[in-house]
Amino acid sequence: MYYYAHIEEDEEGYLVSFPDLPSINTFGDTIEEALSNATEALNACLESDFQRGFSLPSLSSDKRNDFYSIQVLPHIEIAYTLRKLRKGRSQVEIASELGISYQAYQKLENPRKCNPTVKTLEKISAILGRNLEIKLA
What we know:
This protein is α+β, with helices and mostly antiparallel strands. The protein has 2 domains: about 1-70, Double Stranded RNA Binding Domain; about 75-125, 434 Repressor (Amino-terminal Domain) (Orthogonal Bundle), CATH 1.10.260. It has helices at about 30-50, 75-85, 90-100, 100-110, 120-125; strands at about 1-10, 15, 25-30, 65-70. A 4-stranded antiparallel β-sheet has the order 3-2-1-4, covered by helices on one side. The protein is elongated and about 55 Å long.
């Protein structure tokens, strides 16, 4: 999953903004530093927003050529996806179906602690009636 960043050069460096996430802004002295800072700012904000119970903002369909794709880190995307797919089912219920403790499942929905194995993701996808797709791009 990616969000798009707009980067513009000014006399002091490169300013970064996210059209879909107006509260995230950063900068860099070089374009490389601006992109690195954009990745850090995006993922830190999404991690913080998750802890406060926010949903992922909708992705803009505006994929202009002058925008840069900034990746949401996989562990953050997995935590958001699991919360969304659970749809009102409790973490205790899902944990029971997986045969793991509630606390172990709770970590899967925490972007600061999420680190599932592929086997765990396969089990979760089966319980939630979803297909698991993994790709390295």
